[in-house]
Amino acid sequence: MRSRGVLHTEIELQVPFFDVDSMEIVWHGHYVKYFEVARCALLDRLGHNYVQMREAGYGWPVIDLQLRYIRSARFGQTIRVRAELVEWENRLKIHYLISDAESGERLTRGSSVQVAVEIATGEMQLVSPPALVACVQRALEA
């Protein structure tokens, strides 16, 4: 059973021609890009996006990525991508759901895990930096 996120955001986008193959089906690797766009929107909502992470002295590489393809997205289709914050105290775990914007039909789901790495030393952190935790707490209180 998937954990529910404590915060979420949704974006909508129309599948562009350059994301599809000759059968007008989205190439499987582009779903990761759609996850990233939603993740950036979620981080912006938290007030701790990639620029602010770098300014705080940390990089956040993805160390695990899971995708489950249910149904193909197609050229011209408007899709909704939901990103939900699931974990943030020791790592950043986000669940995703891609669905058809009109019908709500589920197309793809997945999750990503990122960890903080101190830029100056290259050392992985075992807990999330205080700057991220504080931003999440402020967002939860808002």
Overall description:
Belongs to the 4-hydroxybenzoyl-CoA thioesterase family. Keywords: Hydrolase. The protein has one domain: Thiol Ester Dehydrase, Chain A (Roll), CATH 3.10.129. The model has no long low-confidence stretch (mean pLDDT 96). It is elongated. It contains 3 helices and 7 strands, in the order βααββββββα. It has 142 residues and is an alpha+beta fold. A hairpin with a 5-residue loop joins β5 and β6 (106-114). It has helices spanning 30-46, 50-55, 130-141; strands at 7-14, 58-59, 62-69, 78-87, 92-100, 106-114, 117-118. The chain has a 5-stranded antiparallel β-sheet with strand order 1-4-5-6-3, covered by helices on one side. The chain has a two-stranded antiparallel ribbon with strand order 2-7.
Question: What are the defining features of this structure?
Answer:
single chain, 142 residues, alpha+beta, Thiol Ester Dehydrase, Chain A, two-stranded antiparallel sheet, 3 helices, 7 strands, 25% helix, 34% strand, Acyl-CoA thioester hydrolase, fatty acyl-CoA hydrolase activity
Short characterization:
It comes from Geopseudomonas guangdongensis. The chain is α+β, with helices and mostly antiparallel strands and 142 residues long.
Second rung of CATH, namely the architecture: Roll
Q: From the helix content, strand content and strand pairing, which structural class follows?
A: alpha+beta
Succession of helices and strands: EHHEEEEEEH
Into which percent range does the helicity of residues fall?
Answer: 10-25%
Which segments are poorly predicted (pLDDT under 50) over 5 or more consecutive residues? none
Major β-sheet profile? 5 strands, antiparallel
CATH superfamily: Hotdog Thioesterase
- Give the beta-strand count: 7
Count of helical segments? 3
User: What is the level 1 CATH name?
Assistant: Alpha Beta
Our estimate of the beta-strand percent is 25-35%
**Over the alpha carbons, how many angstroms does the gyration radius reach?**
16 Å
Write down the overall geometry: elongated
What's the N-to-C terminus distance?
A: 28 Å
What count of structural domains?
A: 1
Mean pLDDT: 96
Strand order of the largest sheet: 1-4-5-6-3
Write the CATH fold name: Thiol Ester Dehydrase, Chain A
